[in-house]
Amino acid sequence: MILRLILGDQLNENISSLRDVNKLTDNILICEVKSEATYVKHHKKKIAFLFSAMRHFSKFLEESNFKLKYVKYDDVNNSGSLFGEVKKAIDINNYKKIIVTKPNEFRLYSEILEWENKLNIHVEIRDDNVSYVQLMSLLMGKRSQTVTDGIFLSRNAKEIFRFNGR
Q1: Are residues 123 and 154 in the same domain?
Q2: How many angstroms separate the CA atoms of 65 and 156, rounded?
């Protein structure tokens, strides 16, 4: 059994972490957590939009017969962090590994790199094949290869949308 974590900016059925998913045995985990919603100041509407997208994607996965655990922000037992939610899932189930698509933020990527030692379970971090950052790179005629490039591009996303009239 495998735990597959999908992050809030990875809401795509073709994401690398779902590439070889077994709908009968693998579990998908998607979490609305305080640590990700508040690590920098965001407009409330942006957070609401993101959570709405996450919930709609989760509904799509459930309707497509994936095994899914969705943690809402206001769930009583929400630990408030991705690590806390992953740890709870591992404590409840007998997973042999975690699969996650490489985050676009270096802060989160660094955190996930530590999970294997902290949780005593293999963590497979797959390359990001369909990210928002890659899409923006294509629109700009650039090719983003690293997490650092992705952070820079994400910071400039407002200018990209303004330039495109959106």
Answers
A1: no
A2: 37
Q: What angle do CA 10, 152, 117 make, to 5 degrees?
A: 55
Tell me how many helices (H) and strands (E) the chain has. Answer: 8, 5
Scanning the structure block, which residue is given the tokens 């922000």? Answer: 73
Task: List, in sequence order, every beta strand (DSSP E) within the chain.
Answer: 2-6, 27-31, 67-71, 97-101, 122-126
Q: What is the model's pTM?
A: 0.76
98 and 22 co-located in one domain: yes
Indicate if 105 and 54 belong to the same structural domain. Answer: yes
Examine the domain organization and report whether 8 and 48 are in the same domain. yes
Tens digits of per-residue pLDDT, 76-102?
998 889 999 999 999 999 899 999 999
